[in-house]
């Protein structure tokens, strides 16, 4: 090459193509891609070479990227370069297969452990408009779908998913897959989808404009008033797409449908699900036997309903199969179906008041305050202030408080009886304030619920007595476990103080919980009161309201003074209860704690505060880099972390550079990995293509690791087990040859086709029978 770099258009484009291919073969695919994006000349030279090298069996990254992103241009380039359309070298994501087998295509489900049914059911995934054209391109190129049929085994399904076509379709829903599955043969023979198939794919993909374009071009070829029209209309109707149905009506009858088209007497869209239920009941189906009655067969085939017939985990956490139509409606949280199911129950056992109460309980358990209030406004609605519903009202109110629905609590307080004299039932063993502090499941709505209750006159005289009776002070469970975290939520302690429930007294446990709950105002108040000073006295007093727990013997502190102070920074940097709303407050809390003379380099279970920050904050904190910079600027020992984890920071002059480097180098490291070998092995366990760059970064700043070839060989085995050819290639530059046990290790953990071809190219004894 010429000194000073290659000049565009003078030397590089004049080299023979064979030499350029040899040069590119020594580079990684990412490097070739970056090189081709440098300028137009480099693009013209290296872009075809990029796809040519990528077409090898142990690469084929471009065809999978195109399948995942519905990119027709990239798929065309990859196929033109010789990439196999039935390549099976892509690693199969386990989570995607579980989703595929249990949620998307249940007819292909295997006997793997069952998963909990989604509640509420997830919305249909939006399919890109270009996906139909991409699938058509892959099928035209010879993509094989014959291995997937109605009786497909799990192994066949996994094999299909590992192909580009399967990788493109693993996230789509059943109607889309069935439309492609039923018409892939015509693509092989005609070279394209028929207009009917394109219209089907537009409907199940949810693309109204695409459907309008197809009907405008091919309306004369489609029998819209005959079988084709009925098929398209039923497909749109089953998907509850009113706009699609109206579009088909226009192209079928030549005029717009009126406002009452496909609407019931109330003006709501007449859903296919409700129609199926009504038809089944008219044909003699019994609502109490939806599992066994054959007349419910059409109902079971509805998208989403099939999940409920496997099992159902109710609000009490019990696993059972839904036997009645009401159970199914509650399971999928369908308001309209639930109302219909209750109205269809046997009239001999029906009770209008009980039916209204069941609907109200479901509405509140789903957090739908608007629906609940509409039930109460109905002329046959319940009167929550009646005496015979007093205990029922208490049960409902406590259940809503447990779930943390502040809007429902406000509605019940406004529409129900006074909460100052609630009856003491089994459900209300504790006062309502104590129950809220103990068992409210939503930290974000705790203060709002307490404000509603206190404003409504909730009894505050028995709060401490209830907590003390059920959870004695010498155990301290209610305050050290759940109650303390709730009490230290932003604004909670101040609110309780105003009503005389909690008498504020400085305590280190309050400070510890306030740091974990991102409560800067309380941390500031406790620090100003000297809780971190050596001469601070925190003996419990009998006049305190909610006081922190004492030791198991009742006369010793829960944590010693030195242990509490040392753990304060670690607890804050562990970020056990992340909350993006208070991320900026976490930085201010850290800065405040560092001004109190705490030992920033003190170890807790062998880890320093800086290690905790790098390993924990990076995962779920938006201000991680700022907090690590704060630690470094206040004297955190970077050298000790380098020695423990086996790396070298390249530039220690700028804390921002150091923090970014630490976050990058520890991105694949678990909290228990500290030795250099553990760090390198953890990095190599990833199957991402960017892992080889992290290996090069780690090796560049850790030259001492090159002295021990055994470590590199162990890392090679980890990369081979992860079926990551790029990482294995990167490691081969630092050690000659391959470890002896690499083939055995890959066989035991599952060898993929891409790694098989690569190992065979190196001359190792591998066979296709070793494939997983």
TrEMBL record:
It comes from [Torrubiella] hemipterigena. InterPro entries: Ankyrin_rpt, Ankyrin_rpt-contain_sf, F-box-like_dom_sf, Multifunctional_regulatory. Keywords: ANK repeat, Repeat. Transmembrane segments: none annotated. This is F-box domain-containing protein.
């Amino acid at each position: 090459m010429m000194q000073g770099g290659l000049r565009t258009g003078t030397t590089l484009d004049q080299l023979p193509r064979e030499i350029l291919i040899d040069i590119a073969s020594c580079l990684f695919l990412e490097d070739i891609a970056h090189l081709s994006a440098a300028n137009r000349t480099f693009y013209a030279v290296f872009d075809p070479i990029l796809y040519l090298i990528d077409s090898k069996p142990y690469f084929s990254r471009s065809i999978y990227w195109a399948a995942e992103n519905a990119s027709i241009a990239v798929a065309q380039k990859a196929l033109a370069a010789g990439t196999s359309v039935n390549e099976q070298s892509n690693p199969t994501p386990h989570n995607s297969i579980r989703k595929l087998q249990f949620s998307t295509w249940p007819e292909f489900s295997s006997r793997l452990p069952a998963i909990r049914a989604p509640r509420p059911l997830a919305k249909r995934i939006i399919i890109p408009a270009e996906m139909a054209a991409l699938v058509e391109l892959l099928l035209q190129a010879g993509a094989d779908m014959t291995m997937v049929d109605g009786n497909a085994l799990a192994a066949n399904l996994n094999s299909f998913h590992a192909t580009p076509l399967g990788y493109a379709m693993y996230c789509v829903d059943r109607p889309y897959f069935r439309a492609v599955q039923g018409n892939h043969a015509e693509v092989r023979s005609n070279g394209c989808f028929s207009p009917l198939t394109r219209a089907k794919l537009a409907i199940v993909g949810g693309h109204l404009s695409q459907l309008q374009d197809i009907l405008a071009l091919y309306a004369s070829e489609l029998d819209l008033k005959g079988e084709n029209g009925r098929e398209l209309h039923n497909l749109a109707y089953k998907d509850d797409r009113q706009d699609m149905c109206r579009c088909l009506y226009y192209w079928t009858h030549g005029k717009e449908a009126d406002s009452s088209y496909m609407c019931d007497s109330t003006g709501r869209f007449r859903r296919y699900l409700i129609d199926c239920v009504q038809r089944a009941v008219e044909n003699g189906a019994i609502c109490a036997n939806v599992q066994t009655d054959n007349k419910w067969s059409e109902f079971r085939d509805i998208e989403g309903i099939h999940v409920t017939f496997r099992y159902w985990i109710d609000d009490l956490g019990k696993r059972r199969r839904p036997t009645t139509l009401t159970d199914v409606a509650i399971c999928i949280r369908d308001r309209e179906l639930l109302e219909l199911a209750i109205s269809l129950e046997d009239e001999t056992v029906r009770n209008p008041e009980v039916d209204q109460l069941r609907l109200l309980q479901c509405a509140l358990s789903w957090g739908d305050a608007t629906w609940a209030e509409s039930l109460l406004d109905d002329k046959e609605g319940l009167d929550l202030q009646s005496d015979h519903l007093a205990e029922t009202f208490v049960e409902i109110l406590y259940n809503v408080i447990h779930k943390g629905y502040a809007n429902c609590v406000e509605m019940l307080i406004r529409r129900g009886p006074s909460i100052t004299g609630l009856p003491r039932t089994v459900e209300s063993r504790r006062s309502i304030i104590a129950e809220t502090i103990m068992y409210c499941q939503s930290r974000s709505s705790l203060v709002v619920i307490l404000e509603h209750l206190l404003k409504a006159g909730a009894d505050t005289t028995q709060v401490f007595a209830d907590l003390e009776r059920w959870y004695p002070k010498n155990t301290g469970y209610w305050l050290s476990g759940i109650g303390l975290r709730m009490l230290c939520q932003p604004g909670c302690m101040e609110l309780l103080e105003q009503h005389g429930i909690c008498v504020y007294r400085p305590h280190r446990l309050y400070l510890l919980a306030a740091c974990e709950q991102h409560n800067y105002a309380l941390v500031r108040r406790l620090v100003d009161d000297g809780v971190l000073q050596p001469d601070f006295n925190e003996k419990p007093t009998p006049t305190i309201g909610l006081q922190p727990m004492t030791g198991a013997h009742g006369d010793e502190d829960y944590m010693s003074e030195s242990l509490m102070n040392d753990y304060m920074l670690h607890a804050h940097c562990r970020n056990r209860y992340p909350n993006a709303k208070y991320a900026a407050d976490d930085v201010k809390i850290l800065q405040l704690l560092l001004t109190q003379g705490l030992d920033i380099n003190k170890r807790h279970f062998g880890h320093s505060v800086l290690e905790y920050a790098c390993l924990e904050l990076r995962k779920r904190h938006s201000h991680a880099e700022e907090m690590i910079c704060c630690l470094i600027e206040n004297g955190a020992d970077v050298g000790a972390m380098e020695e423990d984890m086996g790396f070298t920071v390249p530039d220690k002059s700028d804390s921002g550079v150091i923090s970014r480097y630490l976050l990058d180098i520890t991105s694949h490291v678990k909290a228990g990995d500290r030795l250099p070998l553990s760090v390198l092995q953890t990095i190599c366990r990833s199957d991402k293509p960017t892992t080889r760059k992290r290996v090069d970064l780690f090796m560049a700043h850790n030259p001492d690791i090159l002295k021990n070839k055994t470590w590199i060989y162990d890392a090679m085995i980890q990369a081979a087990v992860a079926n990551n050819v790029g990482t294995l290639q990167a490691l081969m530059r630092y050690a000659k040859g391959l470890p002896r046990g690499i083939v055995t290790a890959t066989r035991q953990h599952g060898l993929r086709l891409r790694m098989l071809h690569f190992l065979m190219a190196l001359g190792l004894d591998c066979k296709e029978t070793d494939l997983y």
